[in-house]
């Protein structure tokens, strides 16, 4: 049985007649209620936070499957009718500029798969610390499951993450703030619907009856999981994750530094502690203008045009108690281990001769410390959405170049970013997230999307940031849909040709998310 469909857009290159035939087939597979068309039902999916016209990134329909067999049939139908399909886990990738991914640049009006009904926690092994999830599972759902079943495991999550998907974040190679914060490193085993509808289970998942799918990443032969991250080679319908055993003790702490240029010395102090695993989690260095939006309105200190003047930033820092840089990290283990490592950390800060260090007891009940302390043990809330209120107008893009964990490089990146952002009239809302030897430099470019000039400036600013940083040997590790081609160019023609070769081999009709990460047939 089919129902009347309200069609306002068809995918590029697909006639209305052919698209209607495809929609009838989709309805037969997932049911009429799970095929969404028309302005009323699609409007929630069409909002973006990028400096682009939302209609340019609008989708033609949304499909909501309930099982992997339905996903396989959807892909086969897409091949039959030449309909491109863009999968999204929960559609809440706010940091990279969009509510629900629908298109990449130059590929308009695709059909979206929304996995909200495929939200089962399929297995959790409390002894081995593993989980097997569907893509619609949220971080909050997983945390609640562990708590309700009294399972002593922690989840590493990004911020803010309660409504986001562990599968989606891991596929985009996102990071978190616990010792398990390199999320793809903690992934083990995938189930993937390939562009021809075949079902692939990677590594040990290919062995019938295997019980080691979620414990041994490699299997036999080439390691395949990586090619399905940040790509359009298949649709992941199950993913295994490693969860962190709850430690006997946990000690979050905060170090406040007064001056912008302190960032170089901070990094060089913290790097050896991170590499030696004295501090085992992803350390965060948050600038004052990243801290402020979570707790105060921008207008409290500056309500004029352009970037906030330095004098007003200094006044804000003094009044609110922010450092120019605010460092958050934690110690984990037995009380005895923490006591030894705490002395090493405090000795390092003392030897630096600058910075004030505070414990949870010192900062009890204060924000944003409490938020960070929760995040570093896998707790979450939506506090960091305060960033999106800072300027107002609903515009946001994260610019996230990678650098080495050396103070000189970090200082260089900070100065470059500040100069470009301020010249275009935007604040430097930035933080560094420290891996073992690398740093993710995450900057939220906040703008007023209701203001055409501000929106145009934001697009030009992002373009300049990507190009200028490329000229200095830096590139981002993630980006939003509007800038995927430009970022892909930063990685050179050989990488692009290899990516295209894989796409042509696996998806010769270019059905799955054409243009994602700059990859086309």
UniProtKB/TrEMBL annotation:
Cofactor(s) required, per the database record: FAD
Domain FAD-binding PCMH-type: 49-246
UniProt KW keywords: FAD, Flavoprotein, Oxidoreductase
Pfam families assigned: FAD-oxidase_C (PF02913), FAD_binding_4 (PF01565)
PROSITE patterns the UniProt entry points to: FAD_PCMH (PS51387)
GO biological process: lactate catabolic process
One GO MF term: D-lactate dehydrogenase (NAD+) activity
Keyword Chaperone: no
Record keyword Oxidoreductase present: yes
InterPro entries (alphabetical): Cytok_DH_C_sf, FAD-bd_oxidored_4_C, FAD-bd_PCMH, FAD-bd_PCMH-like_sf, FAD-bd_PCMH_sub1, FAD-bd_PCMH_sub2, FAD-linked_Oxase-like_C, Oxid_FAD_bind_N
Highest taxon of source: Bacteria
Name of this protein: 4-cresol dehydrogenase (Hydroxylating)
Naturally occurring in which organism (per UniProt): Paracoccus versutus
